[in-house]
């Protein structure tokens, strides 16, 4: 049976990003991206997300990213925090 855990980080304020992570024990890794700059930076945001998830060893789940103009480092930080929360790890 597929086990699901969830973690959330970020806000919907301008220049921030909200990341919701549903980690699973099996299945694909899907990224659902909403952004007001998706046409200009969508591929870069998704690349940053996939690289960060790979570094964290995340292989299965659904990652929902609602971007409000966040910079690269903020996107990475929010993903790391959301994954840690889903894995019930302390975030330092």
Automatic annotation (TrEMBL):
One of its GO terms (cellular component) is cytoplasm. Signal peptide: none annotated. Coiled coil: none annotated. It holds the Pfam family ACP. It is found in: Cytoplasm. The keyword NAD does not apply. It comes from the Bacteria. Keywords: Cytoplasm, Lyase, Phosphoprotein. One of its GO terms (molecular function) is lyase activity. The modification O-(phosphoribosyl dephospho-coenzyme A)serine is found at residue 14. This is Citrate lyase subunit gamma (Acyl carrier protein).
């Amino acid at each position: 049976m597929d086990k699901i855990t969830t973690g959330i980080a970020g806000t919907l304020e301008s220049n921030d990003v909200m990341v919701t992570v549903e980690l699973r024990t099996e299945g694909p890794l899907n990224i659902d991206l909403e952004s007001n700059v998706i046409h200009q930076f969508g591929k870069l945001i998704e690349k940053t997300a996939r690289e960060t998830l790979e570094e964290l060893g995340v292989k299965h789940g659904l990652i929902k990213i609602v971007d409000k103009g966040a910079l690269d480092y903020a996107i990475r930080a929010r993903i790391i925090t959301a994954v840690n929360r889903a894995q019930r790890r302390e975030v330092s």
